[in-house]
Amino acid sequence: MTSIRDIARMARVSIGTVDRVLHDRGRVSAKTGARVRQIVEELDYRPNIYARNLSLARTYTFGVLMPKLSQDSNYWRLPARGILRAADELQPYRVRVHRVHFDRYSEASFERAARKCKEAGYDGLLIAPVLPQIAGTLVPGFFRRIPHVFFDSTIPDSHFLCSVVQDPYQSGVLAGNLMRMMLGQGGRVVIVKVLPDDVHINERMRGFEAAMRRDPLLSLHTEETDSREFGGLWRRLAKYSLRRNGEAFGIFVSNAWTHMIARHVRRHHPVGQKVRMIGYDLVADNVACLKEGSIDFLISQRPVTQGYLGIMALYRHVVLRESVKKHIMVPLDVLTRDNLTYYQD
Fold first, then answer.
1. Contact residues for 345 (Cβ-Cβ < 8 A; gap 6+)
2. pTM to 2 decimals?
3. Is the Cβ–Cβ distance between 309 and 269 less than 8 Å?
4. DSSP string, 115-134
5. pLDDT tens digits, residue range 235-275?
6. Model confidence pLDDT, tens digit, residues 127-139
7. Cα–Cα distances in Å, from 302 out to 89, 104, 220, 338?
8. At what angle do helices 258-268 and 231-238 cross, to 10 degrees?
């Protein structure tokens, strides 16, 4: 196994010089730094963090600030699985992960959870900033000096270490093109915007609308609803139920609550009129609707992967002292009942 001593011998410098180059601290000449980095790259050297931590008796603790797992149709259980997987892998290296949950629908709850994270003195923090107003106010002040990674959504123009997200605008464009493909030319499309919204949801809608505008014969409508109260939405959707001259009808749902809309439509829509539906995320209820055909497409944003990569980005930056990408973009996965099996654990 390659050691710092081996690199120092090959570069003909001291161990201290190699350490300064690896950790980018202290003064080292450009020529010496280049020689050390070339040897490090050729040897594919990785610090033995396990041994170093044992000798220093240092434990790193990362916090996770995220909604309660049961909210948004149990969506948050998915990134929690990825976070747990990363924590299990990093446990031998004295890395611990603590989750702090807040109520997705309460800014006061977010503030309490954020203060708890601040007081805990974590070495790094993974944050789901899904309440953009309060998160945009508190996070830059509370965690400016703490390396923090965003997942699921972001806070634009803030000083974060890394974001692990899907491109929301492009996912909206993808959903829009899929809808146009299913409807053909013309028809009515309803966008269901489920509140509370965030930057991610608004960008999805903007991308979807941009794709819809490519067909001037489409009639586009937007309906907002609170995910805790769908009663008013059912009444508003009823006005789109009457079939007009054989018009095609599609519904785009901006988040994981797609199954609620799909099941209502399946029960109450006129017989013989196919309602095309596109939504997000492989929560259990959405999967069931996809299998039965009441949802045509689900776009997965790989939440398990987001949680896993978010913790790993903190590990690489804080513990390994490696650079990490500013933006890690997860793929745009289109799921149907034909390929669903290959995306489930």
1. none
2. 0.81
3. no
4. HHHHHHT-SEEEE---SHHH
5. 777 776 555 555 678 999 999 999 998 988 887 765 556 78
6. 999 999 999 999 9
7. 19, 20, 28, 18
8. 50
